[in-house]
Design a protein that fits this description.
heterodimer; A: about 575 residues; alpha/beta; Nucleotidyltransferase, domain 5; DHBP synthase; 21 helices; about 40% helix; about 20% strand; B: about 140 residues; mainly alpha; 4 helices; elongated
Chain lengths: ~575, ~140
């Protein structure tokens, strides 16, 4: 039985295909449309899912949409009418979008996919929770879901036992920790819904000097974990901005202009909101514990992308085991929606999780890649022993574009669409930021680390460190060994790699370890600023050609070195200008 | 949708032969109505206005058969009708917002009791999905 989950129209549209209780493929629309955070109907992703599974739309038994459109529309109308007559900008922006397609999602799905079967609707936070819990492999858990906003809910505490998820507490719009963090993201000059991770990366450079002011004026926290935002300082429920003049007057400086020089004031602001978020979420985690009395917690929703916060959760020891779903944003909700069709609607029992929830994208066989390279008349070498060769090149300071079989699902490149480099060289961080990724100099890089060696280098707790969802404190030797991946605060957003999880990635890091004694590599996503992570060999070739990546490797056996011949390709493969994210 | 996207989307649109055929058919119906009211109802002999009819028919057929010409006219039509549609839609939105919603909800809010401050902000009304077949 096949169930298709769809997430669309907010940010990061995606599709996921479930077969008999197991997710077999999931793809984000942005990877195919090449529009970062593409929110349109995920037609390309759906077709690619079907193609990867070798089925047609006629084989789909159920389609599950990730939220309840009418609840969301009701919330928008509620908010708009509450703020009359100041909410016209929001009203005039929202209504055409809803009238055009969002209210007719059922007809849209049927028309665009030529689908004749049943369509179901999960709720937004339920989809988040389901994606995380059913992927976790746990049999029971408390689930904390935190995001900007779903239909009404912004914070949900749930409990899962077997195949059943029960919502216990819910906090509703406009009180949202996700939106509070987004407000500061905008204030510090970054894009809402995409720049939050930059704010998090900036935080360790500053001091939390505004922390008390935030508590005094912007948010009231209650002993039961709930909280209330002082909406006098925010504009998101009536206008098109997150903050208003009162917010700016409170802190005494205007919002930072995007791309302008980074003033220490905004760095302190990032540090302040980060610590407030951490404290408030820890209270929520405590509340979740007392409410559920479970030993396991699953944390999901967009806020769960904050890996510094996740580190605080694992270090707190409130729960015995922690699981952080690797695609906790809206894209992951397509997976949750598909799971809910199986467990929620059809009431099917849980099936054991047999593979990673990450490497479930589409892939390109070596034969197809070779055919494309031959068509382009590019010189390449094919070798079965590429990992040893690449390890030597990495040790010599070369930067590698690593394109390996199934694409990752989620925001992180975890060794299948990655740029790899030597973490022992401190200057590598600046080289990658300036010459490869073309992004801000403060942005840190993360390491892919051999699972067996990680305990000696990092302070680890019971959590899934295999998906770059949690930072870990580096032990004294780690900074000397891999300075390029240790952040300002002495932590690293590690990805543990094992043979079972990613055999080729493991082989490469192992080969590098044998050669250098360093059991890690820099692993950053295979893209430049503003570009979605590469999906196809042509995307990879384009990024390879127009950056300072030295070597491109496909499926760990096909290797291209940059030389005069590859330069000629620029006449055929043209660059794409991506808007800064 | 920003105006540039609106124009770009129309001019990038692929016009099919069937679209041009439908468009010509609509114009033909309008032309028939025009001639009926102007000439046929007052019994003017066809020979006196036949050149007008043949010219119109010539243009209508050319919309269908000539790729560039038909596309161009159709895209002009889509642009103008789209703009008129947008104007009407935004006009309606202004009317609905300021003349209907604003006064009604202003009165509603006047008589709505403000939520009292409590020591918790967990929601009393939870939105729990009870029916997967329901859109909300």
């Amino acid at each position: 039985m096949y169930i298709l989950g769809i997430s669309a129209y907010y940010h990061d549209s995606s599709a996921a295909l479930l077969q008999d209780g197991r997710i077999i493929v999931a793809i984000q629309e942005e990877r195919l449309s090449r529009i970062k955070h593409d929110r349109s109907f995920p037609q390309l992703a759906i077709l690619k899912c079907l193609e990867t599974a070798g089925i047609s739309i006629a084989d789909i038994d159920l389609i599950v949409y990730y939220e309840k459109p009418f609840w969301k529309f009701e919330r928008i109308l509620d908010t708009v009418t509450y703020h009359i007559p100041f909410s016209f900008p929001q009203f005039s922006k929202a209504i055409p979008l809803w009238v055009k397609n969002r209210l007719w999602i059922s007809a849209e799905i049927k028309k665009k996919l030529k689908y004749k079967g049943k369509i179901l609707y999960a709720s937004h936070h339920e989809s988040h929770a389901a994606a995380a819990y059913y992927s976790s492999g746990m049999d029971n858990a408390a689930i904390l879901t935190l995001d900007g906003v779903g239909e009404y809910a912004t914070t949900t505490l749930s409990m899962a036992e077997g195949n059943k998820i029960t919502v216990l507490q819910e906090q509703n719009y406009p009180h949202s920790l996700g939106l509070l963090y987004s407000a500061f993201t905008q204030y510090c000059g970054f894009k809402v819904n995409s720049g939050e991770y930059k704010l998090m990366g900036l935080a360790p450079y500053g001091k939390p000097v505004h922390q008390q002011k935030i508590y005094d004026h912007l948010i009231q926290s209650y002993s039961d974990g709930s909280y209330r935002l002082n909406m006098k300082y925010f504009n998101y429920s009536e206008g098109l901005n997150m903050i208003n003049k009162k917010f700016i007057a409170l802190f005494g400086k205007p919002a930072r202009h995007p791309e302008s020089e980074m003033d220490p004031f905004y760095i302190d602001m990032a540090a302040s909101i980060q610590i407030v978020l951490e404290e408030l979420v820890l209270k929520l985690v405590e509340c979740t514990k007392s409410l559920t009395q479970k030993e396991n917690i699953v944390f999901t929703g967009g806020v769960a992308l904050n890996c510094k916060l996740n580190q605080k959760i694992v270090e707190s020891g409130i729960f015995k085991n922690q699981y952080f779903y690797p695609c906790p944003g809206d894209a992951g909700s397509a997976v949750g929606a598909a799971y809910l069709g199986w467990h929620g609607y059809l009431q099917k029992e849980k099936t054991p999780v047999v593979h990673s929830p990450v490497y479930i994208g589409n892939s390109f066989s070596s034969a197809i890649i070779l055919e494309q390279l031959d068509q382009l008349q590019i010189p390449y070498t094919v070798s079965e022993n590429t990992t040893a060769i690449i390890a030597e090149k990495l040790a010599a300071g070369r930067i590698i574009g690593w394109f390996n079989h199934r694409m990752e699902f989620g925001p992180r490149a975890l060794g299948n669409r990655s740029i790899l480099a030597d973490p022992r060289k401190p200057e590598m961080k600046d080289i990658l930021n300036e010459k490869i990724k073309l992004r801000e100099s403060f942005r840190p890089f993360a390491p892919i680390v051999l699972e067996g060696a990680a305990h000696e280098l990092f302070d680890l707790h019971p959590a899934n460190y295999d998906t770059m969802m949690v930072t870990a404190k580096a032990k004294p030797g780690a900074l000397d060994l891999m300075p390029a991946v240790i952040h300002q605060d002495g932590t690293a957003r590690i990805q543990l790699v094992s043979k079972e999880l990613n055999s080729k990635g493991f082989e490469l890091v192992e080969a590098f370890y044998q050669l250098t004694g360093c059991p890690a590599l820099i692993n950053t996503s295979f893209n430049i600023r503003g570009e979605p992570i590469v999906e196809s060999p042509i995307d990879a070739l384009r990024t390879f050609l127009y950056t300072d990546i030295d070597i491109l490797v496909f499926n760990a056996e096909i290797m291209l070195e940059k030389n005069a011949d590859t330069e000629k390709l620029k006449h055929i493969i043209k660059p794409v200008n991506y808007a800064a994210d | 949708m920003p105006p540039t996207n609106f124009f770009q989307s129309i001019w990038a649109k692929k016009i099919r032969i069937i679209d041009r055929f439908y468009f010509s058919l609509i114009l033909l119906v309008l032309a028939v109505l025009y001639y009926r009211s102007r000439y046929i109802s007052v019994h003017v002999p066809f020979t006196e206005y036949q050149w007008e009819v043949y010219t119109i028919l010539f243009f209508l057929v050319s919309f269908i058969v000539i790729d560039f010409w038909g596309d161009f006219i159709l895209k002009c039509w889509l642009t103008v009708s789209g703009l008129v549609g947008k104007l009407i839609f935004y006009g309606l939105m202004i009317i609905v917002y300021f003349l209907i919603l604003s006064p009604v909800f202003f009165i509603v809010h006047l008589f709505t009791k403000k939520k009292e401050e409590t020591s918790s902000n967990w929601s009393k009304k939870m939105y729990i999905n009870k029916d997967y077949q329901n859109m909300g």
